[in-house]
């Protein structure tokens, strides 16, 4: 029994080593960074990797995070709304009203204009 367990362990380690070496052989990477192709599907990058984003993307990101947090709060709410009753519904409508007020403000200020 011990010999059988040892044989299985050796076979698994050998198979793992074979997979690692086969992957390294089949997916040969360049030896130097100069020989490596660009990352973006082979096209040469037009801007530096640490270039700045336009400020409008920060506003879009904040709106996305607000709606993402809405979903984080609505999933647990959907589980307890039956037990809590009307008070849970009122609380969610207040939360959604605050969220819609924020989106309306962002829309009025022009944060949702793409061009």
From TrEMBL:
Pfam family, one: Oxidored_q4
Protein name listed in UniProt: NADH-quinone oxidoreductase subunit
Membrane-spanning ranges: 6-27, 57-78, 84-107
GO MF entries: NADH dehydrogenase (ubiquinone) activity; quinone binding
GO cellular component, one term: plasma membrane
Keywords, comma-separated and alphabetical: Membrane, NAD, Plasmid, Quinone, Transmembrane, Transmembrane helix, Transport
Stated family: Belongs to the complex I subunit 3 family.
Topological relation to the membrane, as annotated: Multi-pass membrane protein
Biological source species: Rhodococcus oxybenzonivorans
């Amino acid at each position: 029994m011990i010999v059988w367990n040892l044989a299985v362990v050796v076979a698994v380690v050998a198979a793992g080593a074979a997979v690692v070496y086969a992957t390294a052989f089949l997916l040969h990477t360049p030896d130097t960074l100069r020989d490596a192709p660009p990352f973006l599907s082979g096209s040469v990058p037009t801007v530096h990797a640490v270039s700045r984003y336009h400020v409008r993307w920060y506003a879009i990101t904040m709106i996305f995070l607000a709606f993402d947090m809405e979903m984080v709060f609505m999933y647990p709410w959907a589980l307890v709304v039956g037990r809590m009753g009307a008070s849970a519904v009122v609380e969610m409508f207040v939360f959604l009203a605050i969220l819609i007020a924020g989106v309306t403000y962002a829309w009025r200020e022009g944060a949702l204009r793409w061009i």
